Amino acid sequence: MQLEQIHSPVTNKLLEDYWSEHANIHSFFEYKYNVESFGKRMAYLKNRSYRSKELSQVIRSYMERYGLSEKANHYLNELEQGAVVVVGGQQAGLLTGPLYSIHKAISVILLAEQQRKALNTPVVPVFWIAGEDHDIEEINHTYTMVNGEIKKRGYSERSKLKKMASTTELNGEALQQFIVNVFKDFGETQYTEGLLKNVLQHASNSKTFTDFFTLLMNDLFEKHGLLMLDATFEPFRQYEKMYFAQLIERNEQIAKGVVAQEQKLAQAGYSMPIEATEQNANLFYIREGERFLLERQKNFFKNSAASVKFSKEELLAFASESPQNLSNNVVTRPLMQEMALPVLAFVGGPGELAYWATLKPAFETLQLQMPIFAPRLSMTLITRQVETLLKQKELTVTDVFTNKNEQKMAQFVESLKDDRVNNAIEQMKMQLHRQYEELTDYLRSENYHREDLLEKNKNYHERQFNYLKTKLEKQNIDKHETEIRHYKTIQASLYPNNQYQERFYNPYLFLNTYGESLIDDLLELPMGISDQHNLISL
């Protein structure tokens, strides 16, 4: 395994500005990402009190169901004694979801280790599972690669209800079929049998999307003690009671602050990631596992689809007596995280960076300070097969990111065209046109008046010529199918649909090629949070 770091030509304006020392975007955050900020943030956390013992017990009770490693147990003991955390999170995708879920977890672990040494204090890694998210269509599929083509593989069960991932029960038979189909696409290697058996075993022990996600993540990161917590875990909801009350009490001020900040963000030349409104309560009401976004109207919190209407007092009663009936959204989740955990830094992707840029006034409304935002590691995994193909085609990964691979493939396909065949067909078409023109002139002179029939007949023959040309071109291209598939494999592996591979493939595609030590070996590489893109040759 080898590491190369590049400044990626694939840019995100907000993220690029965040890494710039003097960009205006820093006014939207509490801290810049630098050494000095971590010292300041740590000093801030030391002056605040957290319910560390209770929090540790909650996380322990969640993780014990899935298996608690020796290192995770050590981190929980440290957390109980007042350790701070580096936290990141993601939805509970099938087979852990896209690779960026794994990249976030790796980023959290590496940053926690780095700051433990730098600050000479216990810093533990925490992964916040967004089990309360209800967009199942976003997490119920993955992508594979077959003969250089990207293939979408979906879990077949569907629900019309907006149920949370943590309350959506999995159909065991459908899940098993999904996994088997995905692994068939991967192809057989020396690792396939054991890997498939392990994944199927975890699937059989999973009732929900979140169960399956937690079991797999816990398996992959067992040696590294990654602590995990599902946002919907009922003991955690009980722990959050007083924090939900604060979100309800200051609800209107939070919404107004986010709206104003998002407008400032747009004026500064960035997008409006949330499209917030002052009426949005930024809280969901949960009924039978289904989520309904609440809107604030005068003194009430309403959702028309659910036919519910609560007074502020009724919502506060929910917070006190049944907090499991409440859930956060994109605005209140970071606020809840800050109140519930001693957060040294939050690890997020470019999308999260955008909406966090709208939240500073919301933190201030609750007399909180935004933690340090740490952009997650960005990486591309390069298999030996793809590395060999790159050398054969005299291409670099940067070339692929800048569309040079697709250009070379297009040039190659163009070079395969048989000019003699094409010229012959074109001459036949031209001859046909002349003969139809002669026939048209004659018919007009004799008053046949059947130009419409003649045109229709001519168009039919033109289609036949085009069909012949297409078929002959395809036959010629098929003779070079292997060469073309090589270009497609490079593209599909490194930059599928002109996006980073981390947005498409799950880690098991690469575990199947490299082996089960992949995650452990990645964590041994000298990587750290930075503006560099990591190219990793497996």
TrEMBL record:
InterPro entries: Bacillithiol_biosynth_BshC, CC_BshC, Rossmann-like_BshC
Pfam families according to UniProt: CC_BshC, Rossmann-like_BshC
Domain of life: Bacteria
EC number per UniProt: 6.-.-.-
Residues covered by the Bacillithiol biosynthesis BshC C-terminal coiled-coil domain: 379-537
Keyword Acyltransferase in record: no
Domain Bacillithiol biosynthesis BshC N-terminal Rossmann-like: 1-377
Keywords: Ligase
Family: Belongs to the BshC family.
Role summary: Involved in bacillithiol (BSH) biosynthesis. May catalyze the last step of the pathway, the addition of cysteine to glucosamine malate (GlcN-Mal) to generate BSH.
The protein's name: Putative cysteine ligase BshC
Species: Solibacillus merdavium
Origin organism lineage: Bacteria, Bacillati, Bacillota, Bacilli, Bacillales
